[in-house]
Amino acid sequence: MVGSNIFNIFFILGVSAVTCPIPVSPGALVDGTVLAVVMCFFLIPACRGTLRRSDGVLLFLAYWVYTAWLLMTRG
Predict the structure, then answer these.
(1) I need a labelling partner for 36 at 20 to 30 A (CA). Which of 24, 29, 58, 75 fits?
(2) For residues 43-67, b (16+ Cβ closer than 10 Å) or e, as one string?
(3) DSSP string covering 13-27, please?
(4) Does pLDDT of 4 surpass 90?
(5) Distance (Å, whole) CA 49 – CA 68
């Protein structure tokens, strides 16, 4: 999962940007930052080798908080 995200971001997006420049909106920078932070939260249990219920609840709440924030700010 993490490897496919890295591959898609750096390889596929890079090849696409070489053929046709991609404009980046300010909202995309916020989305990228949130993606990086959530990936770091996911790497901690992944390095442990197990995903506990509390880790799942934290990731689930992070998803809902971010989705609610998107709906309130970008409507």
Answers:
(1) 75
(2) eebeeeeeeeeebeebeeeeeeebe
(3) HHHHHHHS-----HH
(4) no
(5) 30
Q: What is the pLDDT of residues 12-30, one digit of tens each?
A: 888 888 998 888 888 888 8
Give 35's contacts (C-beta < 8 A, 6+ positions apart).
5
Residue 38, both tokens: 């959530």
Please give the Cα distance from 19 to 72 (Å, whole number).
Answer: 35
φ/ψ bin of 23: left (φ > 0), alpha (ψ from -120 to 50), beta (otherwise): beta
The residue type of 43 is L
Could you tell me the two tokens for 3? 């490897």
Residues in the chain: 75
pLDDT for 11 beyond 90: no
Residue of 35, 60, 67 whose CA lies nearest to 51 = 60
